[in-house]
Every structure is written in C-alpha cells, then in structure tokens.
Design the sequence.
C-alpha cells in the first residue's frame, strides 16, 4: 500500500489536500505508474466521493493531464515551460537566478547541480520581480495558474474534474505540485477570483496574504505575463 495527496478544489479554502491510501504497483515503467494512478483514483472516488479525477503529469493516460504537466505547459514567446521558469528563477544564498535554465530541456533544468550546490533558497526573481519563499507555493502557483489561463482549451478541460493527482509528487520532499496548482485554478475560477488573482503579482500575493518584496533593479526578461 501507498498514500498520495488528492487535491480537491474548495472555493472557500481554495484547495483541500486529502491523503488517500491505495494499492501501489512497483516498477519504474510508465505502465506500472499508470496502474498505480488507476488504483489511486479508484480509492479517491470511493473515499472522497468525487466523481472524476485527473492525473496531472506525464504519466497520465489522459492527453489533457500530459499537456498540463509543468514539463509541457508553456507561456510567452518564445515558449517557456513552467518547469524551466520555476527552476531558472530560483535565487540562493550563493548564486542565482540561473536564467540560462529557461532555454534548457525541463528535465535537465530540474537536475542542474547549481540548484543543489548554491546554499539555501532565499527568493525567486522572474520578469524583473522578486518573489518571497513564503507562502511556500505562491510563486509556483502564480506561474502555473497564469500560464494555464492562457491555454483556453486546457482551462476548459479542467473544469470537468472534481479532483487532481500527481503520482510522482512526494509531499515529504517537495512543496510545489502541478496537480495542486490546477486545483487552485479551478477554485479561483469557481469563486470568481481568477481575473483578480491573475491581474498582477501584487494582486496574487495580496490574495494569499503576503506582501510583495521590493523588486530588484534587474533587467526584465520581457512582459511574459
């Protein structure tokens, strides 16, 4: 048995995180991961009484779920993936941001050794704007939600689902999760706050209870949002 979080849109509290136990199928193949996803979704439907669950990752059987992976979801021109934007914006005590990661393959960007050898994470800088590390998911959520809003076909697709998962996400090792960000998008949409939240970084930060940091005197990468 294993357990994974299931992210459920809740307009009043934005996202409910429900830990669900399910039968795990060992193995590194996509087929085995997909079997585990099926077990997780069956358990979520039984325990949480949700009708439809979408796996948001490259392991999803649904093309929508694959397209929503942070490795695939893009914005701007030239296209920039959410994953590369997130990794390339990190600022550490001893280095960063490493903007060269913007042009990398997402998997390479995520594994860049500078992200592990530059000391503790202190902030993010993106599009000339500095972001805090608290709340822990606010910067990732901003990038993801703002990018998703620009893909109307994908945004329309997620409305059909009651809950979202990411079979690869381990809450003991990471805070940010693409499935959680999709659930947040749906909650913002259902609560009528989406336009307000994505109107500016200040509006997004204010909504989630954290003032913006003073922006550094750095050259902007372009008006990407």
Sequence:
């Amino acid at each position: 048995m294993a357990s994974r979080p299931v992210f459920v849109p809740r307009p009043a509290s934005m996202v409910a995180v429900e830990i669900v136990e399910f039968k795990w199928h060992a193995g590194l193949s996509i087929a085995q991961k997909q079997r585990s996803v099926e077990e997780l979704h069956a358990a979520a439907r039984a325990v949480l009484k949700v009708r439809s669950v979408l796996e948001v990752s490259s392991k999803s059987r649904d093309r929508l779920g694959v397209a929503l992976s942070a490795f695939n979801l893009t914005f701007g021109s030239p296209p920039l993936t959410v994953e590369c934007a997130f990794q390339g914006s990190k600022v550490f005590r001893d280095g960063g941001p490493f903007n060269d990661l913007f042009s990398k393959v997402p998997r390479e960007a995520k594994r860049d050794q500078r992200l592990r050898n530059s000391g503790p994470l202190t902030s993010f800088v993106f599009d000339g704007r500095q972001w805090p590390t608290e709340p822990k998911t606010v910067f990732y959520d901003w990038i993801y939600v703002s990018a998703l809003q620009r893909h109307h076909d994908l945004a329309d697709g997620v409305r059909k689902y009651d809950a979202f998962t990411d079979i690869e996400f381990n809450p003991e090792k990471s805070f940010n999760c693409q499935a959680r960000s999709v659930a947040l998008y749906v909650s913002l949409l259902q609560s009528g706050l989406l336009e307000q939240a994505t109107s500016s970084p200040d509006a997004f930060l204010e909504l989630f209870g954290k003032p913006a940091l003073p922006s550094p005197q750095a050259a902007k990468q372009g008006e990407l949002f």
User: Anything to note?
Assistant: The chain has two domains: 1-68+161-173, 74-150+192-225. Confidence is low (pLDDT under 50) at residues 217-222. The chain is about 35% helix and 20% strand. The longest helix spans residues 30-48.
